[in-house]
Each structure stands twice: as C-alpha cells, then as structure tokens.
Amino acid sequence: MKRPFLLLIGLAAPATAAPFQNIAALQNRVIAALGAGIGEPGGPSAPIDTRLKLAACPSSVTVDPPAMGAVALRCPAVGWKIRVPLVRFAGAPNIASAAAPKADMIVRKGDPVDLVATSSGFSVSVGAVAQEDGAQGSRIRVKTDGGERRPQGQILFAEVIEQGRVRLPGFN
C-alpha cells in the first residue's frame, strides 16, 4: 500500500496588523511636514523616543501647526496625541524657560506654588502646581488646585517671582 507523500513547504504566517504605531514613520512625517531635519532650526530637536508604544493609527496621523515651540501629532481615530519639541530659529523669542540654565531653576515641575495676582489695593493668591521648571523671571505653566466649581483645575501661564511663588501676568 502506498502512502501519500505530503510535502510541507514553510509557509509564512499571514501578516497581521502591527499592534503599535511605527515611530520611524511618524518621525519621517514630522520632518516632511516641517521641511527641516532633526536638530535643524524649525525641525524636531531630537528623534521621537522609540520606546514610545502608541496604538496603531488606522487613519493618517495629523500634524498640527507649530505652537509654543512644539508640533502636535494626533490620531483622532484612536485618541492619542504627542508633542514633539522644535529647534528655535535664530533670533526667535524665548518661550517659557527654554533659555534659562538648568542650575538657575528655582521652581521645579510638580512643585506646589502660590499663584499671586496683585493690583493697587488688593492681592489674591491660590494654590497651584508647577507644570514645568522655571528660573526667576521666566514664564511657566501652572495648574490651579481647582476647587468646588472646577475639580480638575485650570492651566495658566505665570511668571516666577521666587521659590514657591509665581505671579499672574497682567496685574501690577
């Protein structure tokens, strides 16, 4: 009795969708949208961290216009957003505390601070949390404690006065 001869050829497993977004493709998309490479003025200041694990975007990733020294990449279908810091152009104005040396930082990200608004005849202060490092005289983002009406708090820009104290601009 003859037995059927069965020859199995190594077939590749069917391709499955990648579980994570291709970071190199995101980097190329940012460079193409900005027209400047990594480290060049107007381009990304550093490569996007390859350890970042984002859900694969089923549609195209949108690149927002540059704002506040960074560009935002979004995937509306999945709901993620990342910000990529940019290299400033020569002569561009300073944003936040970018130009201040790290050693002069008197407020650190996560520090509790008093947010003060003063004018002739009154002074108001509320508790807040610094959202970035800041040297004296620099402007940083702070998040207010919120309170009963706004339990999540509000993000505002404030000028660093001294350690643990920031001032709301526009009040003298």
Automatic annotation (TrEMBL):
Residues 1-17 form the signal peptide. Keywords: Cell projection, Cilium, Flagellum, Signal. Gene3D superfamilies: 2.30.30.760. Residues 102-166 form the Flagella basal body P-ring formation protein FlgA SAF domain. This is Flagella basal body P-ring formation protein FlgA. The lineage of its organism: Bacteria, Pseudomonadati, Pseudomonadota, Alphaproteobacteria, Sphingomonadales.
